[in-house]
Amino acid sequence: MKIISYNLNGIRSAASKGLFEWLETEQPDVFCIQESKAQPEQIDTLRMQELGYRSFIHSAEKKGYSGVAIFTRVEPDRVVVGMQNPKYDCEGRVIRADFGDITVVCVYIPSGTTGGIRQEFKMEFLEDFLVWIKRLREERPNVIICGDYNICHHPIDINHPERQVGVSGFLPEEREWMDRWQASGLVDSFRLFNQQPEQYSWWSYRFGARERNAGWRIDYHWVSDTIKDRIQDATILSDVIHSDHCPVSLIINS
Questions:
Q1: Which residues contact 218 (CB under 8 A, 6 or more apart)?
Q2: Angstrom distance (rounded) from CA 194 to CA 249
């Protein structure tokens, strides 16, 4: 099973840049997106159907904001929208699909770049999401949690870490949360295959950051350690450009 996760920074914008044509060539079995910035009726589900995908969409109540979705060629046994927490579900942050003994969770963790209230909201979400995942794993131990985490875990995951002190996405408390996330029995799948520096999945649109590869690695497939031996490959598709992010790919024996 090939699973691709991609923060599109607007699915309609990405579609205008060739997203569907790329998808037809890439052909993932499961395609998870974040930041759709669209209501269900604004997403071309007919085109997705033509490509062989069923669409499961969780949009934010606020139009043009946030939103996640799972498009799948594999019939899911169950799909669950949201965390059953209105505080987060109104922003379209989480959607889950079960495939046999594997559960795929697509998450768009809030950004705290505006500081203040939103950084507090981000930290609250992180704590509640960790609890939610732990409970889910009691029922469904084999979990793949993909998406935009808006956190660089280690200095290797961000350009010039010495310049990022005090910056949301690389704060000590965010990285400490990710330490606890990992210690709960989750594996950063990409680092099983690639320990090299300068491997990024997001670049600012400003100052030619992508051309200079001045990026951040904030898009992940975290996988339960119970199934890490079933992972065949995990890669960053940095040459794919429909967004300020790029896709991240996971291949696992299902």
A1: 148, 149, 150, 151, 152, 157, 169, 201, 202
A2: 13
Q: Digits of tens for pLDDT over the chain (254 positions)? A: 999 999 999 999 999 999 999 999 999 999 999 999 999 999 999 999 999 999 999 999 999 999 999 999 999 999 999 999 999 999 999 999 999 999 999 999 999 988 899 999 999 999 999 999 999 999 999 999 999 999 999 999 999 999 999 999 999 999 999 999 999 999 999 999 999 999 999 999 999 999 999 999 999 999 999 999 999 999 999 999 999 999 999 999 98
Q: Is 29 noted as a catalytic residue in this protein?
A: no
Q: Virtual CA dihedral for 93, 250, 150, 209, nearest 10 degrees? A: -130
Per the residue annotation, which of 89, 128, 148, 225 is the catalytic one? Answer: 148
